[in-house]
């Protein structure tokens, strides 16, 4: 009985202060993204485990290096510095700081469900990313020197996955309060653009294979969609009970 009361209270807190936007189309859209994301990740993981994607990885990887001198990245000198700054957006320190600041705002404005949802979605996504890195244990690219410090395995890209989860999660919360489709499209586009820029920077800096990043994007989008779908279903259930 006590366990049921705690569960009901948790669900009530989770959906409080959140809005869904278009409640009819949202589940279909989220389920589609979830399905495609999981499928894409599994396909990339299988190809990576069998070594069949190595040639494509090397080809795409070297496209970001000077022809005949892979030790040098393409573009002017300032581009490397810019890539380091962009890739920091997907680092855990900045993700945690952003999540703490946004969640704090939701708490002081009494939108407790939004804060709880953001923390659970991003936190669980980070745990999943780290667990998969441990499972696959893919070595980092060995064709060039790394232009950024790395401490974990390569597959999937944690920066790409966690950035995708974090910014899509925050975008989903904001979208629920927007009235026009143009505003929703803008917020979603910004979230996607940030995730893409961070992922590309990881390849440019030589610390990830392109397939690592693609897998991170796919699973990140799937996890963010799954998290939002769970909240949506809890909201609908709560609405039927009232």
Distance between the termini: 20 Å
Task: Identify the overall geometry.
Answer: globular
Instruction: Specify the helix fraction band.
Output: over 70%
Beta-strand fraction estimate = under 5%
SSE order, one letter for each helix or strand: HHHEEHHHHHH
Number of helices: 9
Number of domains: 1
Structural category: mainly alpha
Contiguous uncertain segments of 5+ residues:
none
State mean pLDDT (0 to 100 scale). 86
- Radius of gyration using CA atoms only: 19 Å
Q: Number of DSSP strands?
A: 2
| Major pleated sheet | 2 strands, antiparallel
Explained architecture:
This protein is mainly alpha-helical. The protein has one domain. The protein has helices spanning 2-15, 26-50, 54-62, 77-88, 92-108, 112-136, 158-175, 181-204, 210-241, and strands at residues 65-66, 69-73. Strands 1-2 form a two-stranded antiparallel ribbon. α2 runs antiparallel to α9, α6 (112-136) packs antiparallel against α7 (158-175) and α8 packs antiparallel against α9. The mean pLDDT is 86.
Helix/strand layout:
Layout: H1 2-15, H2 26-50, H3 54-62, E1 65-66, E2 69-73, H4 77-88, H5 92-108, H6 112-136, H7 158-175, H8 181-204, H9 210-241
Antiparallel strand pairs: 1-2
Task: Describe this protein with a few key phrases.
single chain; 242 residues; mainly alpha; two-stranded antiparallel sheet; globular
